[in-house]
Amino acid sequence: MASMKELRARIGGVKSTRKITNAMKMVAASKLRRAQVQAESAKPYADTMYRMMGELASTVQGADPSSLPRLMAGTGKDQTHLLIVMTSDRGLAGGFNANIVRQARQYINELHSQGKTVRLLPVGRKGGDVLKRYYPDAIVDILSSDTGQGDSFGQAASIAQHVSKMLDKGEIDCCTLMRNLFVNAMTQTPERIGLVPLPVAENDNQQANADTAQYEFEPNDEELLAQLLPRNLEVQIYAALLESAAGEQGARMTAMDNASRNASKAIDNLSLRYNRTRQTNITNELIEIISGAEAV
Q1: Exposed/middle/buried for 178, CB within 10 Å: 0-12, 13-18, 19+?
Q2: Based on the structure, what is the number of domains in the chain?
Q3: Is 136 within the bounds of a domain?
Q4: Is pLDDT at 150 greater than 90 in this prediction?
Q5: What is the pLDDT of residue 69?
Q6: pTM of the predicted model, to two decimals?
Q7: Which sign does the torsion angle of CA 38, 41, 42, 43 carry?
Q8: Does the residue 25 lie in any domain?
Q9: 45 pLDDT above the threshold of 50
């Protein structure tokens, strides 16, 4: 049984921990609002561009991949896959990092079972450390995540250039991005997005195809694609960075709130044990005094 001194020390330690978790919850809550606004602002533009590029890909479906830009059709093969996995640089965010890494490992094992080669580009130290431990030979590089405080678009452009160079050199055939989709502060859903080749938009029926308007573009298609394809890649990665940043802050706020609640419960339990121990000690001392008096 713990002594009163030990119980007082444990109560003091848990109270100090609760102060830290409360402070971290407040910091995460203040950062969450800004990150959420940024993610929601970028989402409509990114979704519209993704859908537009998918419709564009459907118009060239069946064409020779070698005649199309690699950012649209890939290399024409399906052997080497690049997987971009977005996590955070810091922990104490509940299952935010563990969930996306678990989904990534399942997808990697699925590709391996099909005889595919997987290259990994983790964005975020937490996910990078885990994936490096399981797949050390597959790591291309481990990049720092962006929590929405720095130049997120500059980072997205840098990642997009990295992907484009690997495609041009023929080091990869396909590229997929995995990130946590921000739903709310308590819910972040792992999501997989195909970046290269562009996913073909699926229409509900043939009538939808017939009703689709036909457009003429200026400048010509080649010049238009040369500008749109790199921009689309940058925008999708940028939106994913913002979603991941919002999800991280939401997950951390929820995790620290739960930690603070658990600390309060632990303090209550320890205080109850402390009072019972104190009462027991007082009772024992009274018994000893009474017994001594009776002996005299």
Answers
A1: buried
A2: 2
A3: yes
A4: no
A5: 83
A6: 0.85
A7: positive
A8: no
A9: yes
